[in-house]
Structure prediction request, 304 residues.
Amino acid sequence: MPPELSQKNGLHFYQFPNLSRFAEIKHGVFTRLSGFSKAPFQGLNVSVNVGDDPESIARNHHAILTCLDEDELVFIHQVHGSDIILLKKENTDTPLIHNNQTGEPISKLSKSITPAKVAAQKRAENTGFLFSPELQQQTFEIGSGDAIITDIPGKILVIQTADCQPILLFDPNQKVVAAVHSGWRGSLQNIIGKTIMSMVHHFHCNPEKIIAGIGPSLGPCCSEFVHYRKEIPGSFWKYKKNENHFDFWELSQDQMLETGVKTSNIHISGLCTKCRNDLFFSYRSQKITGRCAGVIGLTCSDRR
Prediction:
């Protein structure tokens, strides 16, 4: 069953039925429709790293926050790795970057929260454009990694994708949310399983209670790897569906199941971003393009 397509304030976004039933969170995977960016980023591009106009990006961020009726988007600098950022109530001022090779924090961020608009402003130096004050305070980037976990209300976690999987996770018992960026490299490193186990170890979550959504991304119809024998280890070849296509949706589900997440708690969108590049940004389809936003966050009690 596909996720539910919702529309608000002119923006279109998909929501997972298994997550929509919880009033204490807000979530969605936004399409590229609407938005302020121009071609080749046309629509609701949220990335500051693709060459888009900074003002358009800022207005897209603002549109998403208005749609969600929230005040803060929290981004991470995605690197196709397996490091996870822990944004906990007790370390709000110094979020931890957790290294899953050693099982230990590898650093504390030198600044509590660094505005992502700084990166965009660097690109705008020659244009004379400056962010308006109301837009400057809404978007933040807090470090490099490919997953972020938080138990703090009001922090809307953002994953940026253009074929990679946006994975949204929620433990309704512990009130913890996570957002994961899982491309094929991240899948091979089991970023999803490592994130869930970080939820267990650092936030006392129970995998059996975790609700999961696998968002629109490259489907087995389009996940072609011509040189897969060099790129993908043999242990993953069981996910090969024909001569050189792979089903990373199935792999992601299996990685969740291995941690103890229940099958009934997992929703796979089944939407291929390359097939539906009219709805979603697709790197494989268009190369130079924008990034869609997959978001999840705990709501403040007065915003429910």
Summary: Residues 54-68 form the longest helix (15 residues). The chain is about 25% helix and 25% strand.
